[in-house]
Specification:
About 60% of the residues lie in helices and about 0% in strands. The protein contains 12 helices and 2 strands, in the order βααααααααααααβ. Helix 4 (about 70-90) packs antiparallel against helix 5 and helix 6 (about 120-145) crosses helix 7 (about 160-175). The chain is globular, with a radius of gyration of 19 Å. The model is unreliable at about 110-120 and about 130-160 (pLDDT under 50).
Length: about 280
């Protein structure tokens, strides 16, 4: 089903500073792009140009600004591989897309086999396992929850966990592109069908849901990270989650993958983080 998206102008405002890795550079981005293009998955020059302008290295740099240079390189390659597979699923006919999506989830859940990514440290793979599994689970629950078939379309408050927030960010900001292509699993499309309302109203509902979940998230961490007597590890974890959501908003709002513009125009970072080697 295709949706009218002419009036869809999604905007999300992060509540946290935008931080970027000091290891990010055009040279590193070129290395990541050449690594991916080596596999020959893009068959015409226009596709390759759009891929380069998408800048998956910037995505990694603003979502994980505190990582060292080697980890940034690995995360950028992982991002490129994941996005490429996601694009294959999005553009496939419906009868092929659903089996492809199930296969992809199985691959990521079971083996984190991302189509040729090599040289990833085992410790990093374990870390990614903790990151990826909640996101996959959140995606499944958000897309198939019976709550979306009711009048409110809103999941329970307990879904304020970080995975749900990431799925909402991605769905809201990619809504014009995905709904124009007939993608029915996007949260805006789900709410539009559940509420029997136009896509612009569904977008407002999805944005309100994101704000509600972010409020729940902040209330939880206010209890875990009080002004005094806090656990440094918990504070670092909260800071990393804030970096991730802020970076995801920045990249999805400005990358040519979603804006369809000629170039990706990034905001100036509030802080450049120089850590690691």
């Amino acid at each position: 089903m295709a949706y009218s998206v002419a009036a869809l102008t999604p905007r999300l405002q992060s509540r946290y500073p935008l931080r970027r890795s000091g290891h990010y550079s055009r040279e590193l981005a070129d290395r990541v792009d050449e690594w991916f293009l080596y596999w020959g998955l893009l068959h015409d020059e226009r596709q390759r140009t759009v891929f380069r302008r998408t800048d998956h290295t910037y995505l990694a740099a603003v979502c994980w600004p505190s990582c060292d240079s080697d980890t940034l390189y690995d995360l950028a390659r992982l991002a490129a591989a994941l996005m490429a597979r996601d694009h294959e699923i999005d553009t496939a006919p419906p009868e092929q897309a659903i089996p492809m999506a199930h296969t992809f989830r199985s691959e990521v859940s079971a083996r984190y086999d991302l189509g040729g990514v090599t040289g990833v440290d085992p410790r990093l793979q374990r870390t990614l396992a903790h990151l990826v599994h909640p996101l996959l689970r959140a995606g499944r629950l958000l897309q198939h929850s019976p709550r979306h078939r009711r009048t409110t379309g809103r999941p329970p408050a307990r879904r304020g966990e970080p995975g749900y927030r990431a799925v909402l960010i991605q769905d809201i900001l990619s809504a014009p592109r995905e709904l124009a292509g007939g993608v029915s699993e996007n949260i805006v499309a789900v709410l539009s069908a559940a509420l029997r309302c136009p896509a612009p109203r569904a977008l407002k509902e999805a944005t309100a849901l994101y704000e509600d979940l972010t409020d729940t998230y902040e209330q939880a961490f206010a209890l875990l990270v009080p002004p005094s007597g806090h656990n440094p590890g918990v504070r670092a974890f909260a800071s990393a989650l804030n970096d991730f959501s802020t970076g995801l908003i920045e990249w999805t709002s400005h990358s040519v993958r979603y804006t369809q513009a000629e170039t990706s125009n990034w905001n100036q970072a509030d802080e450049i983080v120089a850590r690691g080697l």
